[in-house]
Amino acid sequence: MGVGTNIKRLRNKTKFSHQEIADMLGIDRNTYANWENEATDIKSQFIPKLAEIFGVSIQDLFESGEKGSVTNSQDNFQLHDSSIGQKDFQQGIIINITDSEAAKILSSQLEELIKNLRK
């Protein structure tokens, strides 16, 4: 199960629409739909926000199975979140990870980095 399948499953659990998720991320609805269909790769800059929206860890986005709990709450994501501004969405890199162990390592490192940046 790929990341696209995982975010589709998580979105269905939360009852969010493609448009609602796209609006929260500041992207086009078709871009988000392409991620779910695995037609295009998710830009790495959106991974932490997706985890936040769905109330799961970054690692949960990459793992198969149903780990982590999901709630349909706007508290998971604030549309006016000041921790990441629009300028942060203008640049990024794409990382396509096919090895689950590498995904685990990267996700834990990203989570640690984000915690440190918020301090």
Automatic annotation (TrEMBL):
Signal peptide: none annotated. InterPro entries: Cro/C1-type_HTH, Lambda_DNA-bd_dom_sf. Keywords: DNA-binding. SMART domains: HTH_XRE (SM00530). PROSITE patterns: HTH_CROC1 (PS50943). Coiled coil: none annotated. Residues 7-61 form the HTH cro/C1-type domain. Pfam families: HTH_19. This is Helix-turn-helix domain-containing protein. It comes from Chryseobacterium tagetis.
